[in-house]
């Protein structure tokens, strides 16, 4: 017996998809900002309309039934079609005004791109663009229009996406002056085993692993603080919690830390992923051109193939060459405010 999708509203389909993604009614409710009963009732109504169960209810959450697995692929097609329709309807492709949805890893988003976005918004090209910035700790699904453009540290794999390698992110150990004054400066990688280490753990940084250097037991022992946010990671290092990895250009943009040069460098490719449709609008083309320039090796050589030591960066660039990106985090109490 066939069951028609006629009469099934988009909100119900959206809830069904989110329950599958979260593997939980409660998780879906939190993600969608609705009550858990709303989610349960929507799934029950959909199951009644279709005539079969879509989920197994279990103590640890929910899993799709065989019928649910068949339906979820169609539901995702509906999701993508709806996203495409609304995105196209928002603005004409010929205007520079309108929204652009950018997802970027939290560290690059907070400490590199956001200060540059403020400058971009003052230009003729960027003045009429509404930027929706999502600093994500996971790779977003650009094909399903979770973002128009994604800047990420893992290579996009979907063949339908347009991808471009923007540059290379080089990280090395840094510490605060107070930490090094108290515990000394390690002279080599072996010395690092006697220090406290601060680590940022996210989906896109999984391959940066101290256990691969020191072995599992020692690697886990020296890590005294794990964070999942780049901002928390930076402040932990700057306040003396331990030694941690930061981009080699950290001091150039105003970070109050000291490089610990022990020939330990982790490098990652920086990738841009585009939804194929976004190239059709003027505003997206303008914004993408600006993004590419923001990681230009010619202008910012630390994003090049070759690792640049912080001293070499400092020798080539004065403080006036770059915005003082951390300015504004610390108030100037002795300077009168003029409005």
From TrEMBL:
<dbReference type="InterPro" id="IPR058163">
    <property type="entry name" value="LysR-type_TF_proteobact-type"/>
</dbReference>
<dbReference type="Pfam" id="PF00126">
    <property type="entry name" value="HTH_1"/>
</dbReference>
<dbReference type="InterPro" id="IPR036390">
    <property type="entry name" value="WH_DNA-bd_sf"/>
</dbReference>
<dbReference type="GO" id="GO:0003700">
    <property type="term" value="F:DNA-binding transcription factor activity"/>
</dbReference>
<keyword id="KW-0238">DNA-binding</keyword>
<dbReference type="InterPro" id="IPR036388">
    <property type="entry name" value="WH-like_DNA-bd_sf"/>
</dbReference>
<comment type="similarity">
    <text>Belongs to the LysR transcriptional regulatory family.</text>
</comment>
<dbReference type="Pfam" id="PF03466">
    <property type="entry name" value="LysR_substrate"/>
</dbReference>
<feature type="domain" description="HTH lysR-type">
    <location>
        <begin position="8"/>
        <end position="65"/>
    </location>
</feature>
<dbReference type="GO" id="GO:0043565">
    <property type="term" value="F:sequence-specific DNA binding"/>
</dbReference>
<dbReference type="GO" id="GO:0006351">
    <property type="term" value="P:DNA-templated transcription"/>
</dbReference>
<dbReference type="InterPro" id="IPR000847">
    <property type="entry name" value="LysR_HTH_N"/>
</dbReference>
<protein>
    <submittedName>
        <fullName>LysR family transcriptional regulator</fullName>
    </submittedName>
</protein>
<keyword id="KW-0804">Transcription</keyword>
<dbReference type="InterPro" id="IPR005119">
    <property type="entry name" value="LysR_subst-bd"/>
</dbReference>
<keyword id="KW-0805">Transcription regulation</keyword>
């Amino acid at each position: 017996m066939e069951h028609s999708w006629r009469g099934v509203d988009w909100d119900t389909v959206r809830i069904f998809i989110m329950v599958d993604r979260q593997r939980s009614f409660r998780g879906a409710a939190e993600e969608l900002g609705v009550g858990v009963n709303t989610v349960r009732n929507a799934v029950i109504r959909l199951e009644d309309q279709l005539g079969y169960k879509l989920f197994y209810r279990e103590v640890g959450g929910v899993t799709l039934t065989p019928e649910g697995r068949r339906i979820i692929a169609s539901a995702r097609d509906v999701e993508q079609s709806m996203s495409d329709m609304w995105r196209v309807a928002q603005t004409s492709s010929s205007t520079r005004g309108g929204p652009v949805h950018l997802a970027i890893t939290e560290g690059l988003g907070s400490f590199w791109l956001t200060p540059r976005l403020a400058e971009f918004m003052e230009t003729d090209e960027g003045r009429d663009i509404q930027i929706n910035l999502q600093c994500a700790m996971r790779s977003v699904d650009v094909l399903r229009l979770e973002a128009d453009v994604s800047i990420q540290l893992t290579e996009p794999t979907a063949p339908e996406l347009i991808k471009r390698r923007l540059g290379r992110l080089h990280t090395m150990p840094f510490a605060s002056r107070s930490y090094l004054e108290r515990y000394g400066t390690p002279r080599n990688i072996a010395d690092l085993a006697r220090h406290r280490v601060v680590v940022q753990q996210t989906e896109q940084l999984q391959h940066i692993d101290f256990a691969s250097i020191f072995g599992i037991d020692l690697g886990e022992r020296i890590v005294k603080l794990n964070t999942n946010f780049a901002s928390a990671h930076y402040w932990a290092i700057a306040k003396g919690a331990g030694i941690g990895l930061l981009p080699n250009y950290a001091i150039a943009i105003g970070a109050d830390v000291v490089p610990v040069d022990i020939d330990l460098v982790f490098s990652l490719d920086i990738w841009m992923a585009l939804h194929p449709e976004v190239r059709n609008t003027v505003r997206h083309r303008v914004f993408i051109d600006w993004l590419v320039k923001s990681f230009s090796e010619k202008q910012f050589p630390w994003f090049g193939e070759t690792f640049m030591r912080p001293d070499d960066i400092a020798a080539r660039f004065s403080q006036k060459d770059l915005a003082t990106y951390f300015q504004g985090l610390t108030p100037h109490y002795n300077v009168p405010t003029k409005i």
